[in-house]
Amino acid sequence: MLIESIRLQNFRCHADSKFIFDKATFIEGENGSGKTSVVEAVYLLLNLKSFKEPSPKSVTSFGADFLRIEASYSSADDSGGLIYFFEDARTLKKNGVCVLDIPEYLASSPVFCFSPDTSTILAKDQKVRRNYIDRLCFYRERAHIFDLRYYNRLISQKTAELQKQRPDKNYIDTVNEKIIEMCSKISLRRKAATDMINSRLQVMYNDFGGSDEFFTLDYVTNNGNLDVLNKEASAARCLYGIHRDRFYSRNTGRIYDKFSSYGQKKTFELLVLSAILLDVEEMLKIDIITLLDDFEAGLDEKRSAAFFSIFSGERQVIMTGVKNRIFKDIRTIGL
Fold it and tell me: Is CATH 1.20.1050.90 correct for 124-284?
C-alpha cells in the first residue's frame, strides 16, 4: 500500500493540514513544528493506536470536538480512501464503508514505526516491548491477538477473585489451568519471533561491518515458574504469567541494556525493526509502510544511507528530521 495524501483535522497542532507523499518522503522542521504528528497520524490511521498516546482523545487538539484523519491510498490491486473519525467513539471507513473486521484491516495494511523512546524494542516500559513483539506474532499467526485477549480476561477474572475476602480456591485452580495453557502458546510464539530476529541480526551486523558491536535480543519469560502461584493468594495479585515477560538486549553473553553511544543503541533498534519488516513481508507477501521519526539523529551519513536502502526499495518510507541533509533526490516537506 502507498499512502498518497493525508489530511489532518484537529490532530495535535494541525487544525486542518494536508500533505502529499511519494514512495520516499522526508518531513523536515524545527522541534515543535508538528512533523512527528504527521507520521503519528499515519500510524494511528493504519494501526488504530498512536505510538505515543493511549487514546485518540489524547491527540485531539485542545478544545476541539472531534478528530479526523483522511487519506488516499493505492496498491497493486486496490485504491481508494480511508477515514478515521473520533468524537465520542471511533469510526473507521474504507472507501465509504465502515470497517468491522479490525484484525483483517490491520493485516492488510501493515505499518511499522521507529520513534525515539516510545515505540522501540528498547522502550523504558516493558509493556511497550512486549507489545512490539506481539505485533510481529500477530502477523505470524492471526490467533495471537485472540489468545492475548482471552489471557487478559483470565487475568482480570483471577485478580478479582484474589482480592475477595475469601477467594474460591477451586475457581482459582480452574482459571490457573487455563492461564498456564495460554502462557505456553503465547510464550512459544514470542520465543520463535525472538529467535527469528536474532538469526537475522547476526547477518545484518556483519553486513554493517559491526560484528564487534553485535547485540542480540534476549527474551525472559515468566511462564513456567509455577512456584509463584503459591504466593499469589497472600499478594492478592497475579504474579505468574506472560504479562510479566521481559525483553532485553544482550552483548558478550550477558543482558546489557546500556550502550556506549546513542548511535549504537539506535543501530540495534533499527536492525531489529529491519528484521521484523523482512519477516512480515515474506509471510504476507505485501510491502510495509515504514515511518522513521527523527531518523538521522545519532547516525553518520554512511549508516543513514545504509538504513535508507534497507527500509525503502519497494516499500513506502516516511522520515522526519530537523533538516534533510542527505536525501536530496526524494520529496521533502518543510514545516
Answer: yes
